[in-house]
């Protein structure tokens, strides 16, 4: 084949020309061997070695897809057997694995119906295919955009008629594409005043007469596009803000065809812009109120931005004065420049902006104090690129702080200011004097360092969350605690808490007073008070004992005296000398007992100041005998029968005065409140109940209505019968005497049947 090409100059020239324009090779199939003979270009296209032979079957295998190989097999079979020529494009996989598109043309020389020769052309059309695909993709994307409802697209021809009106335009303006293309005048969508402004802008831009310029054609003439905000009128008459981009349409000959308009609804954007403007206005107003400005420093370009209020703080005019990197630093007070420079250096090195307070000197010589807050912006490599922040004029606040500090230092007590978490913010010199810590050592430390009793927790728990209450009710609270100084020594202190409402939150003013001397004085007072109370108790006890002794004395003497009066009456009425002699003997006995009683009471008064509590072993029989002898007159007069049974417990360790007084009171009461309908009977018994000596005194007298009088039975001056000698002292005194020695007295009684007193003596 190569020989044929060389011998045929026309073919050779043609192939060389084609090869110069595109990658085109030639091939020929040996019908006897079914081997391909390919030129260098074909070999290069298929990544073959020069003069490498391919079989007919190899060509099928190189096809990327099976169906393509089958198609090629059919084409080659028809070419070889029937001489049917073909021109097709197939995707191949080269020997090196590269995917290509190739155009294969098959030709045949036929003589007398027999195919004598098969050959053809092999062209690499990969780049053409890729271009076609890109064009198809671009066309598809463009079609999607044009037909998208998200963006409105309208095209207008040179006669001002709408030629295209996509779904986005339909959705936004309310017209159907059919309506718009058929009858809608594009000018009806626009507001006349905006069209006029558009004409003026273009006339000024291109130096044209505003009255003669046709703005849309002028854009085409200048081959320029225009993007700006317009207000369109919708089909229903509503107005909608849009951003419209106008682009002239021209053909290949640069002839004006019309104009393309692409627009979208910017209602939300306009609303956001309006809100942003309002927020900026509020921000500017807030900056003016708070004397605050904002700034930005581009650390790469050294560009500086100041807000309007930043200019105001430094007394500069934004319209006249530019700001550069050194502008700010030139205003820094000379004494504060090193401080600010060190702060900036530390910020860059640490890559963290905290805050700094320093002074500035304005052009008029006035000194102000400013507070810088900011943030360091880092790039993807962690290197600083920008600083942004705020600058606030805190001169007035600083002056107020100095005044506050002066008041704090002038306070006579230790003063600390803590936040809601109990962290110390400020402390005065008195605090240093009391606790031994410097202000720097206390700064940002928990208050428990000074007051380890966790008074914060105490107030929250015991005082219904004191800090919250203090915050809302303006309360103050004072408590006593123990503080600890830097040597670990405990100091008695009094704490007074007061809430301070600030812009940064609730602070607590804690006044701490050393009450060591006060505590010592209180201790002395308490000791004196205790001694005074002891003396008072002693005096009260003495008075009580004297009163008790007086009651015992008066009551115990009343019965013998009354008995003497009875005997005296019998003596005066008696005419028999023997009876008088017997009565006189009884006089002597009663007088003897009276004398003994007086001696006993006097002795008790001498030994215990009226408290007859000396205990002796006493027989119940002796106490009863003395009682009956004292009451001889009444017993004789009433004919009373007195019985006793002390066999179970014959004696007791007791006070002689108390026991005789108890017997005398109970027996005399039984005689006094006897029933007029029967002879008095009095029975006394002693026995043990749970190892305690119990004595009962039972009579058959008038009895007592316990339901009515039981609650006041043993009350002082309480009487329950109309008897001329009833004083209401005997039972009261008996109860007091028994209880003073650890005993109990109770009573059981039935009206008109009698009463039983039960005495548990020890």
Automatic annotation (TrEMBL):
It is an enzyme of class 2 (transferase). SUPFAM superfamilies: ATPase domain of HSP90 chaperone/DNA topoisomerase II/histidine kinase, PYP-like sensor domain (PAS domain). It comes from the Bacteria. Residues 86-137, 226-278, 354-406, 477-527 form the PAC domain. Its EC number is 2.7.13.3. Pfam families: HATPase_c, PAS_3, PAS_9. Residues 138-209, 400-453 form the PAS domain. GO terms for molecular function: protein histidine kinase activity. Residues 552-762 form the Histidine kinase domain. Gene3D superfamilies: 2.10.70.100, Histidine kinase-like ATPase, C-terminal domain, PAS domain. It catalyses: ATP + protein L-histidine = ADP + protein N-phospho-L-histidine. Keywords: Kinase, Phosphoprotein, Transferase. SMART domains: HATPase_c, PAC, PAS. PROSITE patterns: HIS_KIN (PS50109), PAC (PS50113), PAS (PS50112). InterPro entries: HATPase_C_sf, HATPase_dom, His_kinase_dom, PAC, PAS, PAS-assoc_C, PAS-like_dom_sf, PAS_fold_3. NCBIfam families: sensory_box. This is histidine kinase. It comes from Cellulophaga fucicola.
